[in-house]
Amino acid sequence: MKITTAEALIMEVLWRADHPVAVEDVREALAEEEWTDATIRTFLSRLVQKKAVAATKDGRRFLYRPLIARGDYVHAESKGLIDRLFDGQLEPFVAHFSEREDLSPAQIARLRQLIERLGRDK
Questions:
Q1: What is the C-alpha to C-alpha distance for residues 102 and 86, in angstroms, rounded to an integer?
Q2: CA angle at 67 for the pair 64 and 70, rounded to the nearest 5°
Q3: pLDDT grade, residue 120 (50/70/90)?
């Protein structure tokens, strides 16, 4: 399932909420985007069509909730990126990123801990 950048912003609102949300809630959460209710409804409608979001009628309005977990979405997007740009190989991705970004000593230490934990778990 392909979710656009704008749709992902709306999904983040839904994932953060602990209950189904209305268009007004999305507008308030994304006030800096200055989207109209009609724009938000369009994005939500697309997400419903993609089966990423469920809509439930509540009086004269609809309430929306995510049907996919954030972790599942992040995994699929990450895997797609690595497959597309690095032939499915994680090591070249990490090497490429670390050569172009200044990793802090704390980030490097966390990566070392992760690698050590992965080695113990296998």
A1: 21
A2: 105
A3: confident
How far apart are the C-alpha atoms of 57 and 64, rounded to whole Å?
9
* CATH 1.10.260.40 describes domain 5-66: no
The angle formed by the CA atoms of residues 15, 18 and 21, to the nearest 5 degrees, is: 75
Of the candidates 55, 73, 65, 68, the one whose C-alpha atom is nearest the C-alpha of residue 5 is 73
Does residue 122 carry a pLDDT above 80?
A: no
In this predicted model, which residue has the larger pLDDT, 95 or 64? 64
Please choose, from the candidates 83, 115, 84, the residue with its C-alpha nearest in 3D space to the C-alpha of residue 98: 115
Specify the 3-state DSSP secondary structure of 77.
Answer: helix
Return all residues near 103 (Cβ < 8 A) that are at least 6 apart: 111
Domain ranges of the chain: 5-66, 89-122
- Regarding pTM above 0.90, the answer is no
pLDDT surpasses 80 at 121: no
Q: pLDDT confidence of 21, banded at 50, 70, 90?
A: very high
